[in-house]
Amino acid sequence: MIPITEQSSLYDNLETKSVQELTSAINQEDHKVAKAIEEVLPQVNDLITSIVSKLKNGGRMFYLGAGSGGRLSVLDVIELPTTYGLPKGIYNAILAGGEDRLIDALEEMEDDINEAWSRLSTANISEKDIVVGISASGSTPFVVEGLKQCRAHNITTGCIVSNLNSLIAAQADYPIEVLTGPEFITGSTRMKCGTAQKMLFDMISTSVMIQMGRIEGNNMIHVKLINDKIMDRGVKMLMKKADIENYEAAKSLLLQYGTVKNAMEKLVKNQD
Asked: Cys-Cys with 143: which of 32, 133, 166, 200 at CB 3.0–4.6 Å?
């Protein structure tokens, strides 16, 4: 049986289509992604709950991937320290070929069956941690062997794949099989599969950060003040939360204490 991700596109003779026809058809296919994710929300919820439990008990989260999905997981991890003030090393991504080769697309490295466990071992992976494999096909050797070694060492595993009954899902305690159907370009899993992966990364990491107390109300109270835009956002956030009318006074407090959360805690302490 041909895997879903390799089945022939529902569209043909694409070279004869107008731009309008192409974008309309791609958009129709993209509409299927959110529905496919809706079908697996219970499994997503279980994975998130497990990740939160691990992190709250001093563990770490590792994405293990290759190809488009692996690169997207790296981008997700990169953004968390700034957006949520999360210390580096808690949320991680291991990409076949190395994260430093992100733009080189070393697709041949996904066939290496030893690299994943070697790099996890270098990171001192333990039973306190959780490893989530990323693969559209569900058969990437780099990911399969990495998860297999994790299970042999009693390390909790999860996965995000786009085919049913895959080798990777068989090695996952928390499998997510999101079925987006044949790609618009046959086999081009950077399209719907990639979109689904990106949506799931956003959903998972955002929910984890909220559960870990990195958000208050709907505000990024731990955001790092790395540029003028974020500084302005932080000042206005502090003004609203602490009922401060003077912009410069709020900015001074924010610069002194580093985050909205720290500034708020100091103000509350001073009032006691």
From this structure: 133
Specify whether 110 is catalytic.
yes
Q: Indicate whether 70 and 194 sit together in one domain.
A: yes
* 204 and 246 housed in the same domain: no
Q: Compute the 3-state secondary structure of the chain and give helix, strand, coil in percent, each to the nearest 5.
A: 55, 10, 35
Claim to verify: residue 194 and residue 238 sit in the same structural domain: no
The arrangement of strands across the sheet holding 61-65 comes to: 91-95, 61-65, 130-135, 156-161, 174-177
Active-site residue (options: 15, 39, 79, 127): 79
Q: Under DSSP, is residue 88 helix (H, G, I), strand (E, B) or coil?
A: coil
Domain that holds residue 248: 228-271
248 Cβ contact list (under 8 Å, min separation 6): none
Task: Specify whether 172 is located in the same domain as 71.
Answer: yes
User: Chain-wide mean pLDDT for the chain?
Assistant: 93
Annotation says 107 is catalytic: no
Strand partners, 65: 95, 134
pLDDT in tens, 104-155: 655 656 778 889 999 999 999 999 999 999 999 999 999 999 999 999 999 9
Is the same domain home to 14 and 59?
A: yes
Overall number of domains in the chain: 2
What does the DSSP 8-state code read for residue 105?
A: -
pLDDT at 216: 93
51 and 138 both lie in a single domain:
yes
The answer to whether residues 32 and 181 touch, using CB atoms and an 8 Å cutoff, is yes
From the list 110, 115, 177, 183, the catalytic residue is: 110
Q: What is the pLDDT of residue 101?
A: 63
Q: Identify whether residues 161 and 81 lie together within a single domain.
A: yes
